[in-house]
């Protein structure tokens, strides 16, 4: 019996270590690769919950995101960490942010549909900026002449916002000045 407890503690330590050093969130598939023996998803969830409880009340927390599990600083400590690296995140134009919001809330959409909602053309630079940032990607093609690409947000976009899914996006009303107009029917 002590052996099983030791094994569970060892597995928890290995998973915790992997999550602490990983550059990206790790999904269950990734965590299973850490071990030669097959671990069930239910067991891994129990271990992840144990890790979350072990880190409760500390400055770092284990969170589940769209791309998997990762450690991050608790939000209340972010202002302190920002002092270490006062570099500001890149600023994006209103056009880039509107395009991203339309894709996030209404996607997947073609470029033409995005232009119809925005009421203006979407420049190639806007799409390129969002693709290079890893926030949008082509997820398919509309079955119409020309087979235009369908743009949707990525797991990386959700991970960067600390979300598990698009359903966790704030209601549009909470975004203040940034609104996504309804598409004309």
Detailed description of the structure:
Helix content is 44%, strand content 12%. The longest helix has 20 residues, at 2-21. A two-stranded antiparallel ribbon has the order 1-2. A two-stranded antiparallel ribbon has the order 3-4. It has helices at residues 2-21, 28-32, 41-54, 78-82, 94-106, 111-118, 124-132, 155-161, and strands at residues 60-65, 68-73, 136-141, 149-153. The chain contains 8 helices and 4 strands, in the order H-H-H-E-E-H-H-H-H-E-E-H. The model is unreliable at 179-185 (pLDDT under 50). The protein is of the alpha+beta class and 185 residues long. The radius of gyration is 21 Å and the shape is globular.
Mean pLDDT: 87
Main β-sheet description: 2 strands, antiparallel
Uncertain parts = 179-185
User: What letter string, H or E per element, gives the SSE order?
Assistant: HHHEEHHHHEEH
Task: Assign the structural class, choosing from mainly alpha, mainly beta, alpha/beta, alpha+beta, or little secondary structure.
Answer: alpha+beta
- Specify the overall morphology: globular
Strand order of the largest sheet: 1-2
How much beta, percentage-wise?
5-15%
Based on CA atoms alone, the radius of gyration comes out at: 21 Å
| DSSP summary: helix tally | 8
Alpha carbon gap, first and last residue: 65 Å
Helix content: 40-55%
How many E strands?
Answer: 4
Fold blueprint:
Layout: H1 2-21, H2 28-32, H3 41-54, E1 60-65, E2 68-73, H4 78-82, H5 94-106, H6 111-118, H7 124-132, E3 136-141, E4 149-153, H8 155-161
Antiparallel strand pairs: 1-2, 3-4
Helix pairs in contact: 1-3, 5-7
